[in-house]
């Protein structure tokens, strides 16, 4: 298997390095895996002027899977939109057609006190957020900023288009129903159908699709209520399916239930399980270069890569068990630290996972 590694910006290179060490340890044990590194994001802009250079696109298209750190940072925030690191990320997701973004929010028992919610609210939490990743207001046309006549006179307006085609909703719905079927058989579809036509269609398609999945209990929730229910009683959820923007916001919220966003991995899959694997968090410019970032979300994303793109469940479970073990041993990066545990940096956390493997 050929893996294209895109370390990216900020903490990206630091956390990706630890995930690579874990994969290399498995290679030493016989896993057939090769790595090729390429530029994406801010460092790609600096080197080539393009956040997603053609050379990177070629490697990504030829690879069996992509492992990504994170992109972005204040240095590039004032560039024209097309040159921003985040645009590179959106382009690679779109070009590869990885429309199904799986973001599992699992609370490891040892982290019950690291969550900002009471342990009894979050203990045993195991939610899968299925976020549509290549459509919605993120990609909808037309969009822009231009001068228009408004009730306040002539001035600039900014606008975007929230749009989903039926088939686009159906294919992410199928992924979510299939996932629910393999888990707790409960699927909650999150929308804003009381206001937005785009998500009214979303709900209609989900209801229609549910006829093919009589064994899965489908429910619906408006996104504002879902945001509230996630912190009120998160264990009511099994699988949640939602659009690109609502999924972005709800998955960051769900991450805090697990202790830290540094714990939340993700897999972005196309129709054939070719995947792009990245932590759900960003490049964390505030802690970049300090060697303190939590690499576990990226290491767990590597485990998801073995599960979905390599079809190697045993290797995935081996990594996940190693992560459980280091948490049980008391190793904590700053984001999940609490008194009585051992505070470690990024590399020491990687060392501990390797030892546990
Ligand atoms: P962020 O996720 O980078 O950081 C939010 C907070 O969480 C920060 O305090 C950060 O220190 C902390 N944090 C994040 N990951 C952590 C980890 N592994 N260990 C410990 N703490 C961690 O979000 P932001 O600050 O809103 O965005 C920063 C930059 O990252 C922006 O340029 C944004 O566009 C980009 N971003 C990229 C991705 C991606 O590449 N997939 C995702 C989100 C944000
Ligand atoms: C994420 C990020 C990205 C998104 C940004 C950086 C484009 O927040 O992966 O969650 O909004 O999808
Ligand atoms: Mn996000």
TrEMBL record:
InterPro entries for the chain: IsoCit/isopropylmalate_DH_CS, IsoPropMal-DH-like_dom, Isopropylmalate_DH
Q: In which pathway does it act?
A: Amino-acid biosynthesis; L-leucine biosynthesis; L-leucine from 3-methyl-2-oxobutanoate: step 3/4
Q: Please list the cofactors this protein needs.
A: Mg(2+); Mn(2+)
- EC numbers on record: 1.1.1.85
Q: Which UniProt keywords apply?
A: Amino-acid biosynthesis, Branched-chain amino acid biosynthesis, Cytoplasm, Leucine biosynthesis, Magnesium, Manganese, Metal-binding, NAD, Oxidoreductase
Q: Which residues bind Mg(2+)?
A: 224, 248, 252
Q: How is the cofactor bound?
A: Binds 1 Mg(2+) or Mn(2+) ion per subunit.
The Gene Ontology biological process terms listed for this entry are:
L-leucine biosynthetic process
Q: Does the keyword Nucleotide-binding apply?
A: no
Reaction catalyzed: (2R,3S)-3-isopropylmalate + NAD(+) = 4-methyl-2-oxopentanoate + CO2 + NADH
Give every Isopropylmalate dehydrogenase-like domain span: 2-353
Q: Spell out the subcellular localization from the entry.
A: Cytoplasm
Q: Name one GO molecular function term.
A: magnesium ion binding
- Offer a single GO CC term for the protein: cytosol
Q: Which PROSITE patterns match?
A: IDH_IMDH
Marked site (Important for catalysis) residue numbers? 138, 192
Question: What family classification does the UniProt entry report for this protein?
Answer: Belongs to the isocitrate and isopropylmalate dehydrogenases family. LeuB type 1 subfamily.
Known partners and oligomeric status: Homodimer.
Q: Describe its function.
A: Catalyzes the oxidation of 3-carboxy-2-hydroxy-4-methylpentanoate (3-isopropylmalate) to 3-carboxy-4-methyl-2-oxopentanoate. The product decarboxylates to 4-methyl-2 oxopentanoate.
**Could you identify this protein by its name?**
3-isopropylmalate dehydrogenase
Give the source species.
Methyloversatilis universalis (strain ATCC BAA-1314 / DSM 25237 / JCM 13912 / CCUG 52030 / FAM5)
């Amino acid at each position: 298997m050929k893996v294209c590694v895109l370390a990216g910006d900020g903490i990206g290179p630091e956390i990706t390095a630890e995930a690579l060490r874990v994969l290399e340890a498995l290679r030493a044990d016989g896993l057939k895996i090769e790595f090729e590194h390429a530029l994406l994001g801010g460092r790609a802009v600096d080197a080539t002027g393009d956040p997603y250079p053609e050379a990177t696109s070629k490697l990504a298209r030829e690879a069996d899977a992509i492992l990504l750190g994170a992109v972005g940072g204040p240095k590039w925030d004032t560039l024209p939109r097309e040159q921003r690191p985040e645009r590179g990320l959106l382009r690679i997701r779109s070009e590869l057609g990885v429309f199904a973004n799986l973001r599992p929010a699992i609370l490891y028992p040892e982290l019950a006190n690291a969550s900002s919610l009471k342990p009894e609210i979050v203990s045993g939490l195991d939610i899968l957020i299925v976020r549509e990743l290549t459509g919605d207001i993120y990609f909808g046309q037309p969009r822009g900023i231009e001068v228009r006549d408004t009730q306040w006179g002539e001035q600039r307006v900014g606008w975007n288009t929230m749009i989903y085609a039926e088939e686009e909703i159906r294919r992410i719905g199928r992924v979510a129903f299939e996932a629910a079927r393999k888990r707790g058989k409960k699927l909650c579809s999150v929308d804003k159908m009381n206001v937005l036509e785009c998500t009214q269609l979303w709900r209609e398609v989900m209801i229609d699709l549910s006829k093919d999945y009589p064994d899965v209990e489908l429910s619906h929730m408006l996104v504002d209520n879902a945001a509230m229910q996630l912190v009120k009683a998160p264990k009511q959820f099994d699988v949640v399916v939602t659009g690109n923007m609502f999924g972005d916001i709800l998955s960051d919220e769900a991450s805090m239930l697990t202790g830290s966003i540094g714990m939340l991995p993700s897999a972005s899959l196309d129709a054939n399980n070719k995947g792009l694997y990245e932590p759900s968090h960003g490049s964390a410019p505030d802690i970049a270069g300090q060697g303190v970032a939590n690499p576990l979300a990226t290491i767990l994303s590597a485990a998801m890569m073995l599960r979905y793109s390599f079809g190697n469940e045993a290797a995935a479970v081996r990594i996940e068990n190693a992560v459980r073990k280091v948490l049980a041993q008391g190793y904590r990066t700053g984001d999940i630290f609490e008194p009585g545990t051992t505070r470690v940096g990024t590399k020491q956390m990687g060392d501990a996972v390797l030892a546990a493997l």
